[in-house]
Amino acid sequence: MKIAILGFGSVGKGLARIINEKNLGIIITAVGDSKSGIIDNKGLDICKILDNKEKTGLCGDMKITPELILNSADYDVLVEVTPTNADTGQPALEYIKYALSKGKSVVTSNKGPIALEYSNLLKIAEENKCFLRFEAAVCGAIPIIHALEHGLAGNNIKRIYGVFNGTCNYILTRMSDEKLTYQQALLEARELGYAEADPTYDIKGIDAAIKLVILANTILGFHKTLDDVDITGIDNIPSDALQLAGEDEKTIRLIGEIDVENEKLRVSPRILLKNHTLVVQDTLNAVTAETDLAGNVTLIGKGAGSVETASSIISDLLFIRECNGRRY
Amino acid sequence: MKLEIKDSPGQLVAALKPVSDVGGNIKSVIHERDPLSESKTLDVEITLELPEGKLDDLKNLLKKSGVSILRIGEERFLIRKSVILIGHLIHTDLSDTVDRIDGTGFAEVGELSMIMPAVNEPTSAKLTIKSDSIEDITRAMDLLRDISRQKGILIVEPLEGI
Fold this sequence. Notes:
heterodimer; A: alpha/beta; Rossmann fold; 6-stranded mixed sheet; 12 helices; 21% strand; B: alpha+beta; Alpha-Beta Plaits; 4-stranded antiparallel sheet; 4 helices; 30% helix
């Protein structure tokens, strides 16, 4: 199976490294970042490219653009792991559309295009008899899409709820356990690389809301946008509130929730018993699906990280290969 | 309530049936037979939930089936929900917030505990609303959400029992 990777940040590099180390039968024929690109249809020398990227900040030749890679590289699947733009989905959206329209399957970790244009992208994929997979876009390493789509096939899903944002979970864990103030916990999260320099997306609940929109539109067939989600973040939670909750052996977590019957999406800080299944520590994510046949099923795991996200991408790649009768 | 019923077959059922007839829900039945008792009656203690205003109907039905009521201990507002309010609670008249819940007649504020923060910081308070039924708690929560929206207060609600 030959793949082209667009986006060579933390996720792209992690993926390339793992494919290079593990014998998965996957060959990387092209890599492109925002400034450069490199193509070798016989398979790239990944170690050299990683080295280059480290030293120069470039993965290849500045003349090789994403468009050139999409057009001229030999690949079965495009792995699209460029940064998310939640407003327009670009430039990823165009890359994905282009590949799908050429009959190339796409695996992406990018929330923007899936949240904004899933039904359209799926149509293009179906017309061109190829696959669009996006396991890595929701909850990092947790195979939530696969579990809901295939593992729980035949079930009616009544409710999906849980911890969808590791940054908020880390901050609330530290505020609860160590009585840190919100500002202290945020600072700590930044120092550890768990929070972005501009943490707005995470702490305002927007990141969790996008994940709900993706699950709602892809698994449940809704047509939701970010505006349909009732969002409250954690930036106004004082540590006093966590101390009050703690008096009753409870705590506060940022919970994303899809009420399937009423088609309602909500992200808000909620009170949970400290021993509740969804009260996970640090940057973990945890999601419960309430179903008619299987009852409650909860998945817990790492919601971010380069290797963790690569795990979901690889699983999508191998799924596509399996569905194609191992033709690649 | 504690009931006195005849010690003969079918009497316990006769005593419990009126509860469901008025839409009540039996929580427990304690039915003790004292072997030393010469009496031809039995004492039965039942704990139940009744819809608002149905107690008189139940009393009448029990009387008709020949059951005498020895004692009724009424306890209201068994269902509770605790939320945490965050904001300028004092400056937005906390007693008015509480009064508006209490004034509904179907719910009341049971407990309130507060942490006073530094000046100009928002206050956090844990507030427990008590009511008779899930429906009434839901109505009271809707009211609290309205009040909070008006006053710019953030409510942190429990996850379970939505």
